[in-house]
Amino acid sequence: MELALTSSVVPIQDPGLARLYAYWDEKRGSREFPARADIDPLDFAYMLGNINLIDVLHDPLRFRIRLYGSNLAARMNFDMTGRDLDDHPCPEFRARVARDWQQTVESRQISHKMIDEWMDDRRVRYESLRLPLSTDGHVIDMLLVGVMHLDVQIRS
Fold first, then answer.
1. What is the 3 state secondary structure string of 125-144?
2. How many domains in the chain?
C-alpha cells in the first residue's frame, strides 16, 4: 500500500527524521498504520530526545502528550509529558501544532513540514514529521512525532 507524504514540497531534510520514517514504514508493512506495540523506542535511540508520543483522543478530537522528548523540553524550558496540548503555555505555537496534528489525523496521512516563522515572540525554525499509529489498524490513536530544531531566536 502506497501512503502519500503530505508536505510543504520539501523532502525530509534531517537524516534522523528520514530514518524514523523508513522505520515506521517498515513496521507498517502492508497495513495502513503500525500499532504502538510494533514500535520499539530502542530501535530509534538516535532520535529519542527529539520524539513526542501523542495520544489521540476522539469525540472531541484532542491530544495528550504521553512523552515529550528531553531535547525538546530543554529547548523550550518546560516539559509537557503527561499534559494535554491545551496546557501548552505558548498560544501561537499550541495553535500551530493543534492544526498540524489535526490535519495528520483527519487526512489519515503522515505529514512533514519545515517551519520558519515568528510565534509567541520567538522565531522558530524546525522540521517536523508526524507518523500515525493505530491499535486496531483503523482508528488513529497515537502520533509518533519527530522534531528537529534548527534554531530559535527570541525577539528583543
1. EEEEEEEEECCCCCCCCEEE
2. 1
pLDDT (tens digit, 0 to 9) for every residue of the chain, 156 residues total? 344 444 444 589 899 999 999 999 999 999 999 999 999 999 999 999 999 999 999 999 999 999 999 998 888 788 999 999 999 988 888 998 999 999 999 999 999 988 777 767 777 788 999 999 999 989 999 999 999 976 655 555
Boundaries of domain holding 60: 5-154
Give the burial string for 131-153 (b: 16+ CB within 10 Å, else e).
bbbbeeeeebbbbbbbbbbeeee
Domain of residue 131, CATH code: 3.30.450.20
Torsion over CA of 19, 32, 146 and 95, rounded to 10 degrees?
A: 160
149: part of which helix (H) or strand (E)?
strand 142-154
Whole-number Å distance between alpha carbons of 130 and 77: 22
